[in-house]
Write a structure and sequence with these properties.
heterodimer; A: 323 residues; mainly alpha; globular; B: 530 residues; alpha+beta; D-Maltodextrin-Binding Protein, domain 2; Dipeptide-binding Protein, domain 3; five-stranded mixed β-sheet; 17 helices; 31% helix; disordered N terminus
């Protein structure tokens, strides 16, 4: 047990190091540099200002020296200063991490709960009307581009019927206590979480449906039915739990993809998360911030995978013994 | 030009004010103003920090103009008005400017604003601001007393008064910023102590900036608003939806013409194109004059004749953009009608091309056009149109897109282009924003928005330099007219249109920012009708 944890931690560390080095080198391939961007932001600048910017951020040093310096500092937990925002990268990322995790968790939770339930509904009568409805919903949800769904939801539920706010995470004009704030954030969260969740809801409902149909044909289901277990219990207890296994595995694997999917949703809703920060930082050639974000996302994906392992074992204890 | 209800109400208000002035005591007119309230400004800009002394550009300018006072300010015309300085005077040789500061003015931390702070701030700006020509002629500055600032110039510098306004030279508290740290990376730039009508209390990058009324502001009774919130949206669509839902009350610097037309049609909002004379934004087509074919002035002129500005304005910009015909915008005091406009004329274009040995029967001509990415209407659409328009005169154009701004900037700055669409701002005075594009001395590879055309005409240099030190306005206008006449003849750039920046605001917003600096000037006079 201890060995396994140690091995996984070692893998994780090696992975993070590889991600940092690879990305550091990859980002250098993009044309233009931060000085160019900052000059652009300033509406033009002269050579002296640009040289000063390059010197300030050590961009005038050879590439490998820059990489060495960066890794040296990163090992000490210092991810550097953002070139663009002039603040410590760690501070910048931590302030954006919460909103992204909140959005992803809400979207994933919504997609998991509603998606699997819809899949179950569809599996109960595979040729019935409800199954067809779920299939159509899944197809639409999966094929509609996220930013389009997002904009349509905003137009419908924020502009035409002003139920929800258009964008942002909090209403800065309103003041109030922590409870008001939480409610306010929840209020802002609905549309973006729905938008991001719809894609995965589609996938999970399809997956659950297929997986349920397979499980329902299994011997132990027939046995359970023969024993006289109620249909409800057969579905929910015997079948559903086993059918969930592939869904959980896929969800865990997709965690990284969801974070990148969040970029679009965050852009449409001006949600102050990591996605928009990553996007802006790439455009601004803000190397330390981009690398910092990749570092944190690698960390998140590793944690998510560990959690998936854990949940899979809970669902199917045989997996724990298998290794 | 102000659209819809704005026109009538603004005229009515002006009329009412005139009537009030005639028939009633002035206090009555003043009573109309309702104080208090929060103005939410929708913004697409992402400021790096808020210290405009070391960071130019509109993203920092809008909040900085609220946080910091300047010595002078401007209304709707290019006439300087008192702000922190209540009076100013040039010496007879125009080489010394003496300014008297308002007494009793204080920074947001309660410390008095003195001539010492002013001199220190101007020094910091002179040293660090990217627009180095702005204060460059300053030789020395003196503070004979806490209320007097004397600026000695090496030579007359008529652009100075404008440079002392708007977003260009904020007055910083010396006692706060003079702490031995490099001012360009000082963490205090994120939440600076300022001198202007509003103090900044929150700055969340990518989210919002909160500006609260500064009660000790040096103009009695101002600002009228309690709070300004600058909310950042990721794209124009979200900003427009925020306006439609009432989440935001004002959306400045909007140039997406379809969206402007949509808001205009909503009936509850006023749309104006005033407030942009200061930045003077021009959308143009630049030529690399080092390209063998484009080094021939006839080819450049032919291309200019082959492009129909009306098509760009009407078909691509929903009729909202004004034509640009020379290095400055129409609202600039140096605008002249006396230039070659290159109105659409295919016969002239064909004739010039034939003369140069291209076109029908001549050598084939293939050119590439670049454009600034992420700006569909002003850049990509016009570049695509140029391709189609030049095909009609036998020039084959390929459109090269850049994945992002730094890629484009790198290509243009290193002179790796044939033609490119570009957007360049006047910044109020030719010395600040215009000369850089044309001076021979400003051909600097690696620097974006320098003379990347590699254009060089010594006569133009002489005229521009002479105009820069000419204190007499009329004479200055003549010199610039001559320079612009020559530049348009030489056609290193084909001017296409003024960027149709508009400010959209709800009808409740009174005294909207229509000065030459718009929202890059103080919003102390804006108030909300409850």
């Amino acid at each position: 047990m201890f060995n396994r944890v140690l091995r996984q931690l070692l893998y994780a560390a090696a992975l993070i190091l590889a991600v940092l080095v690879l990305n550091f080198l990859l980002i250098q391939l993009a044309p233009g540099d931060p000085a160019q961007v900052i000059a652009g932001e300033m509406g033009g600048a002269n050579e002296e200002v640009m040289a000063a910017i390059r010197q300030q951020y050590g961009l005038d040093k050879p590439l490998l020296t820059q990489l060495g310096l960066y890794l040296g500092r990163a090992l000490q937990g210092d991810l550097g200063m953002s070139y663009f925002y002039n603040r410590p990268v760690t501070e910048l990322i931590l302030s954006r991490l919460g909103p992204t995790l909140l959005l992803v968790a809400a979207a994933l939770g919504f997609a998991m709960i509603v998606g699997t339930r819809l899949g179950l509904l569809a599996a109960r009568n595979p040729r019935g009307l409800s199954s067809a409805a779920v299939t159509v919903l899944a197809l639409v949800g999966y094929s509609a581009p996220v930013f389009w769904t997002g904009l349509m939801l905003v137009i419908l539920f924020a502009a035409k019927i002003p139920l929800f706010p258009v964008a942002g995470m909090i209403d800065v004009v309103k003041q109030g206590g922590p409870l008001m704030r939480a409610l306010d954030i929840a209020h802002h969260l609905v549309l973006p979480a729905l938008t991001l969740g719809l894609v995965y809801l589609a996938q999970y409902s399809r997956l659950t449906r297929a997986s349920m149909l397979e499980v329902l044909g299994a011997d132990y289901i027939r046995t359970a039915r023969a024993k006289g277990v109620s249909e409800r219990r057969v579905l929910n207890h015997h079948a559903f739990r086993n059918a969930l296994l592939p869904v959980v595995t896929v969800a865990g694997m997709q965690f990284g993809a969801i974070i990148s999917g969040a970029v679009l949703v965050e852009t449409v809703f001006s949600w102050p998360g990591l996605g928009t920060l990553a996007f802006q930082s790439i455009l601004a050639r803000d190397y330390p911030t981009v690398l910092g974000i990749l570092f944190f996302s690698t960390l998140i994906v590793i944690i998510a995978n560990l959690l998936t392992d854990f949940v899979s074992r809970l669902l199917d204890p045989r997996l724990a013994g298998g290794r | 030009m102000t659209f819809r209800t704005g026109l009538t109400r603004r005229t009515l208000l002006a009329g009412a004010a005139a009537l009030a002035a005639l028939s009633a005591p002035l206090s009555l007119a003043a009573q109309e103003v309702q104080t208090g309230g929060t103005l939410v400004l929708a913004s697409l800009q992402k400021p790096r920090h808020l210290n405009a002394a070391v960071q130019s550009g509109i993203a920092t300018a809008v909040p900085a103009a609220q946080i910091f006072a300047t010595l002078l300010r401007y209304g709707e015309t290019f006439e300087p008005e008192p702000y922190l300085a209540e009076s100013w005077e040039y010496s007879d040789d125009a080489k010394t400017l003496t300014l008297k500061l308002r007494s009793g003015a204080t920074f947001h931390d309660g410390e008095p604003i003195t001539s010492e702070d002013v001199i220190w701030s101007l020094g910091v700006t002179k040293e660090n601001h990217p627009f180095s020509t702005m204060l460059e002629p300053i030789e020395s500055m003196e503070a004979p007393d806490p209320q007097t600032v004397v600026i000695n110039l090496r030579e007359p510098h008529p652009a100075l008064l404008l440079a002392l306004s708007g977003p260009l030279t904020p007055i910083l508290p010396k006692h706060v910023f003079d702490d031995g740290q490099d001012i360009t990376s000082n963490p205090k730039n994120n939440l600076p102590v300022g001198s202007g009508p509003f103090k900044v209390t929150q700055f969340e990058p990518g989210q919002h900036i909160i500006l609260e009324r500064h009660d000790g502001f040096f103009l009695e009774g101002r600002p009228y608003l309690d709070r300004i919130v600058i909310r950042q949206y990721q794209d124009a669509n979200s900003g427009v939806l925020a306006m439609e839902s009432g989440e935001a009350q004002m959306f400045p610097l909007l140039d997406a013409t379809r969206l402007i037309r949509r808001l205009e049609g909503a009936g509850t909002m006023v749309v104006t194109d005033q407030g942009y004379a200061g930045i003077g934004p021009i959308n143009w087509l630049a030529f690399n004059t080092k390209n063998p074919a484009l080094s021939d002035v006839r080819v450049r002129q032919a291309i200019a004749y082959a492009i129909d500005r009306d098509f760009v304005a009407n078909a691509l910009h929903a009729g909202l953009s004004k034509p640009a015909i020379e290095p400055v915008v129409q609202n600039s005091p140096f605008f002249t009608e006396n230039v070659e406009r290159y109105d659409f004329d295919l016969d002239k274009a064909n004739a010039l091309l034939a003369e140069a040995g291209f076109g029908e029967g001549g050598q084939p001509l293939t050119l590439r056009i670049d454009f600034i990415p992420d700006n569909e209407e002003q850049q990509r659409a016009v570049a695509e149109y140029v391709k189609a328009a030049l095909a009609k005169v036998g020039i084959e154009v390929s459109v090269r897109s850049s994945p992002d701004f730094p890629t484009w900037a790198q290509r243009i700055a290193s002179h790796d282009f044939d033609m490119t669409m570009d957007q360049v701002f006047n910044w109020g005075d030719p010395v600040i924003g215009v000369n850089r594009t044309y001076l021979c001395s400003n051909i600097r590879p690696g620097v974006i928005w320098s003379n990347t055309q590699s254009y060089c005409n010594e006569e133009v240099d002489r005229l521009l330099n002479e105009a820069g030190v000419e204190p007499d306005l009329a004479r200055r206008q003549e010199l610039y007219a001559a320079a612009f006449g020559q530049i348009t003849q030489d056609a290193p750039i084909h001017f296409i249109n003024e960027v149709p920046y508009h400010t959209v605001y709800l009808q409740a917003v009174q005294n909207p920012p229509v000065s030459i600096w718009g929202t890059m000037g103080p919003l102390d006079e804006v108030w909300l009708q409850q």
